[in-house]
Each structure stands twice: as structure tokens, then as C-alpha cells.
């Protein structure tokens, strides 16, 4: 079984921890990398220092409400970069705004999930991401 590399762009340490726990409970071998803001996310993806040895992720979980460069800006940069645009980007955010949903899909997000506030529902949402995106979906460039 191949190791799946996931980049989580999330500034809430509790949500990072919950995501890690939910993914660990899944059946997929994975490595989760977490960054706290949009600038770090783009540095990670472009392998700028201190991320020169970073793996190119197979999947990106992106919060919209992050500092320094918001999730919409990060999404747009990813999808306009020929080297990055085929990486699936799942928006995982607290916003349920129709405007945010429309804008992210206009910027070529692959999926939009509003984070549940309930602990068990949040863990379930991560497990569903795990089940679908890491078990069912064929990720571009990965056999």
C-alpha cells in the first residue's frame, strides 16, 4: 500500500489534532503535513525554504479563514500553477456562506465541506474524506 501525502492548511491547532486523529483511525497509510497560513502553504507547495525536502501532496485540505494569505488566494494560486493544479483541493472550513461556496468552485476547488462544530461529526467528516478521496478516487499521477 502506497503512502498518501496530505497537506493540511489550518491555523487552529485543535482542528489539526482532530484531523490527524480521524485520519489515523482510517485504513489508509498517510503522512499529514500541517501549515498554519497561506504563505507557508505556498512555500510548502513550491518547496521554498524551509520546505525544500517536502513531498508534493496527493491531496490538500484547505481552510478559507487562514492568516497572511487567505484560502481563496491560496486556492487560486494552486489552480493557476501548471505544476500544482492537478492536486485535488478540498475546502474544509467553518464558512457556510453561499458566496464562499460559489467562489471556491469558480476557483476550481474539487470539493467544499463546512466543518461540523460537533466533535463526532467533525471526525466523521474527516473519515468520509478519507474513505472517498483516499480510497475511491483515483488521484492524478498516482497509480
Question: Could you explain the architecture of this structure?
Answer:
With 143 residues, the chain is of the alpha/beta class. The protein has one domain: 3-Layer(aba) Sandwich (Rossmann fold). Helices cover 41% and strands 17% of the residues. It is built from five helices and five strands. Strands 2-1-3-4-5 form a five-stranded parallel sheet, with helices on both faces. Helix 1 packs across helix 5 and helix 2 packs parallel to helix 3. The longest helix is centred in the C-terminal third of the chain and has 18 residues. The protein is globular and about 35 Å long. One of its GO terms (biological process) is phosphorelay signal transduction system. This is Response regulator.
- Into which percentage range does the β-strand content fall? 15-25%
Oligomer: single chain
Average per-residue pLDDT, rounded, comes to 89
The tally of beta strands, per DSSP, is 5
Shape by Cα distribution = globular
CATH architecture assignment: 3-Layer(aba) Sandwich
Tell me about the largest β-sheet. Answer: 5 strands, parallel
CATH topology: Rossmann fold
Keywords: Phosphoprotein
Organism: Rhodocytophaga rosea
Modified residues (4-aspartylphosphate): 63
Domain Response regulatory: 5-130
In short:
This protein has 143 residues and is of the alpha/beta class. The protein has helices at 13-25, 38-45, 71-80, 98-106, 119-136; strands at 4-9, 30-35, 59-62, 89-93, 111-114.
